[in-house]
Each structure stands twice: as C-alpha cells, then as structure tokens.
C-alpha cells in the first residue's frame, strides 16, 4: 500500500452528476488530502493525516510543494496516429480557403492519407509516443486514438497495430478506435462499396486481432451520408463494436443518428440545432465538443452551454489531428471554451475527467478519485484549483501518475 500526498486541494469528482449543469459549489474539494492506493487502484481518499494514522505501514510518496490534485485527464477523441504535416492546409485556411474546399481539391484528410500510407508501423508508433508524451505532460492519463489515415486494409491495420504497440508500453490508458470510414479513398468511386469492403474485409480482422472495440464514422457531405453511416454502424454494432460518430461538424444529421443507434458519443456538434441538442439530452450518448477543431478552422465553438443546460452529458476532447486541430493542448482548449461558452470551473473539470471517461465506456474505471478506480492523478503547482483555469491552460502539472505510478 502507498499513500500519495499531502495535497492542499484534491478534486475527487466523487458523486458529481453525470449530466447537465454543475455549479462551482457542487465541486467536491477535499483539503489537506491524500490518496491510499494498492495495485494501482484507489483504496481510499481522505485527510492525509488520517490516512497516515490509519495505515502506519503504508509507504508514503511525499508531495513537498503546494499542490492541487485532480483525476488524470481523459482525452476522449484524438487522431494522433498520423504521418506528415498539413501546415500548407493551415496557411490556406488562414488565407480564406475553407476546410471543405481544401478537401475537395485533394488536400485535407487525403493528403494525410498519402503520408500515412508511406510511413512504417514503427514510424507511426514513434509519432504516437511523442504526442502521447506531450498529452501526459499536460495531465492526460487516458487517451483515445483513432485510425483513419490509411483507408486501405493493410494501412488501417498498420495504424491500429502501432497504437496497440504504444498501448503495451505505457501506463496510461489507451483506447483505440477504428475510423476506416473517415472519408472515401481514391480507389473507390462508390462510398457504399467502400463501406461494404470495410465490413467484409477489415472489421473481421480488427475484431479477431483485438485491435479495437470501437467504430467511428465521419458523417458529413464531404465524407458519408446519414443513410450510408446508418447501414455501416448497424453492421459494426451487429459484430459487437461500440460506436461513436463524427457528427454535426458542418451540417446536422449525425448526432440524431448517434442517438438512434445508442452510440457511446456524438463528437463535434458545432452545427447542432436545438432539436439535435434535445435528442442528445434525452439519450445516454455523450456530447463530445472539440474546441481544438474550432480553433484550428476558425469557426464557432459547439453550443456547449446550451448542451449542458438541456441536460446532456458533455465532454471536451482535443481532436488532435494534423488537419483541423493541430494544437493538441487540451488544457488551453478547455480553458478557452470555458470563457467563451460561459462554463463553470466544475463543468470544465467534469468534461475532461469522468464525463469524458463515460464517452469511452470507462466511467467506472477512470475520471474520478474514489475507491476502486485507477489512481490516475494530475498534480498542479498551486494551492487553489481556480488558478488553473485562470492561467488559461498555461499552468501545466508538475507531476502526473497513471495506475499509481509516476508518469511525468
Ligand atoms: O475530427 N472531421 C473529421 N475528422 C477530423 C479531421 C481530420 C483531418 O482534417 O485530418 C476532425 O476534425
Ligand atoms: Fe475527429
């Protein structure tokens, strides 16, 4: 057994609500706290002195400075397995070209596809490790990572195997998602034929090799229609995959499909209308907003305040990818979303901890500091948790633990 502490403040998130608005007073803040752990999991959270007294034989990992501990952060939507750069796309967007125009001209996702197909599995794994390490330094201990930049059988499997290789050598929790349906590759004229190929040729191997338990699709006119996605996702669900949807980024439709199919999450939602919000609120599908994609495209944020007020389960993720969201700094992005969308500090923490964990089906494993959960911690150099948002993401943790082990 080991005790980590003392922390001037510890945000346990225990018993905080799964959906809807949260007032700052509802945020559970323990003072002079510590965490007792065994085999990487939390046994008890409580007053540090009390833990010392009750468990005198436990080893103590002393925190010498003023520190605020929060549950390790959960980034529930990333595309950080890729090769190459899209700096050129970014400059074109700054000069006024739209994301869709660049995509239709053969840039966009397909340009990352060319780079990623040419990369070796090892090169991809190195890129994933480097980016995951950066996320670890900002406190992320659970990270979803999608395939979707190869769009052929061997390349998509290469991506998932690279993700798996990184997963094996990190204490962080890595959740791979199959996004073969990111867009239609040039080899296929017919989108339906491409989806049929994924269903028949690729999904069975993904399943057999245990490479991913989740399937995602980009629902948008530059990718797949609602009807195409419905067919594909139903087939994936029938094979036992959990589903998630890139929904309502530019046009609505995807979020309502996600609700209809009981998806784990509907992600993006920049273009969601009130009826889409109402549908999400009446479901268990998590609304994952991606401020990094708004910042990378120069478009408005998803209507996060309205999603919360309607009663949705709202998570925030980085969407880190080479195209629309190149920054990858979940803390900066969440802080900026908070001030523009008028979110409470408690709503921001919930969105990148236990609510995000719920989007990945890990709501009983990570995202809260309570008995039975993994001991994942992000520890910030301050004595007041409000200072963290006040610094707008500039304050980084000085220590990060995953499964009870120091990661950073
Ligand atoms: O979530 N919108 C679709 N997919 C990614 C972007 C992919 C890319 O531009 O490379 C997203 O924003
Ligand atoms: Fe995305």
From TrEMBL:
Segments forming a coiled coil: none
InterPro entries: Amidohydro-rel (IPR006680), HutI (IPR005920), Metal-dep_hydrolase_composite (IPR011059), Metal_Hydrolase (IPR032466), MQNX/HUTI_composite_N (IPR054418)
EC number: 3.5.2.7
PANTHER family for this protein: IMIDAZOLONEPROPIONASE, IMIDAZOLONEPROPIONASE-RELATED
Protein name listed in UniProt: Imidazolonepropionase
CC annotations in GO: cytoplasm
Keywords: Histidine metabolism, Hydrolase, Iron, Metal-binding, Zinc
Biological or metabolic pathway of the protein: Amino-acid degradation
Stretches assigned to the Amidohydrolase-related domain: 69-382
NCBIfam families, alphabetized: hutI (TIGR01224)
Pfam families, per database record: Amidohydro_1 (PF01979), HUTI_composite_bact (PF22039)
Gene Ontology MF terms in the entry: imidazolonepropionase activity; metal ion binding
Organism, as annotated: Thermonema lapsum
Domain of life per record: Bacteria
GO biological process: L-histidine catabolic process to glutamate and formamide
The Aminodeoxyfutalosine deaminase/Imidazolonepropionase-like composite domain, residue ranges: 33-58
């Amino acid at each position: 057994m080991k005790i980590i502490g003392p922390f001037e403040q510890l945000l346990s998130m225990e018993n905080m609500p799964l959906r809807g608005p949260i007032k700052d007073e509802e945020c559970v803040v323990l003072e002079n706290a510590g965490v007792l752990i065994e085999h990487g999991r939390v046994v008890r959270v409580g007053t540090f002195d009390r833990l010392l007294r009750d468990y005198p034989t436990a080893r103590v990992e002393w925190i010498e400075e003023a520190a605020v501990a929060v549950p390790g952060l959960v980034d529930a939507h990333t595309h950080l397995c890729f090769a190459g750069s899209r700096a050129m796309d970014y400059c074109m967007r700054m000069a006024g070209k739209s994301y869709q125009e660049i995509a239709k001209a053969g840039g966009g996702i397909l340009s990352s596809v060319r780079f990623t197909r040419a990369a070796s599995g090892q090169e991809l794994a190195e890129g994933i490790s480097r980016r995951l390490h950066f996320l670890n330094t900002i406190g992320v201990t659970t990270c979803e990572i999608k395939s979707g930049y190869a769009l052929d059988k061997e390349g998509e499997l290469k991506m998932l195997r690279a993700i798996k290789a990184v997963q094996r050598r990190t204490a962080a929790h890595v959740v791979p998602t199959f996004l073969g349906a990111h867009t239609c590759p040039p080899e296929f004229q017919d989108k339906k034929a491409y989806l049929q190929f994924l269903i028949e040729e690729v999904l069975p191997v993904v399943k057999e090799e245990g490479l991913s338990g989740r399937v995602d699709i980009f629902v948008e006119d530059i990718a797949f229609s609602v009807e195409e996605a419905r067919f594909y996702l139903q087939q994936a669900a029938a094979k036992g995959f959990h589903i998630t949807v890139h929904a309502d980024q530019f046009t609505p439709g995807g979020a309502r499909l996600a609700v209809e199919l009981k998806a784990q999450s509907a992600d993006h939602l920049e273009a969601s209308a009130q009826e889409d919000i109402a549908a999400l609120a009446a479901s268990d599908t998590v609304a994952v907003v991606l401020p990094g994609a708004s910042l990378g495209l120069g478009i408005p944020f998803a209507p996060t305040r309205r999603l919360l007020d309607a009663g949705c389960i709202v998570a925030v993720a980085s969407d880190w990818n080479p195209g629309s969201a190149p920054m990858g700094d979940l803390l900066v992005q969440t802080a900026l979303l908070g001030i523009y969308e008028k979110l409470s500090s408690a709503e921001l923490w919930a969105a990148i901890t236990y609510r995000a964990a719920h989007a990945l089906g890990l709501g009983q494993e990570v995202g809260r500091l309570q008995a039975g959960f993994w001991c994942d911690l992000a520890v910030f150099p301050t004595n007041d948790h409000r200072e963290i948002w006040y610094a707008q993401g500039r304050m980084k943790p000085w220590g990060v633990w995953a499964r009870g082990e120091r990661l950073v």
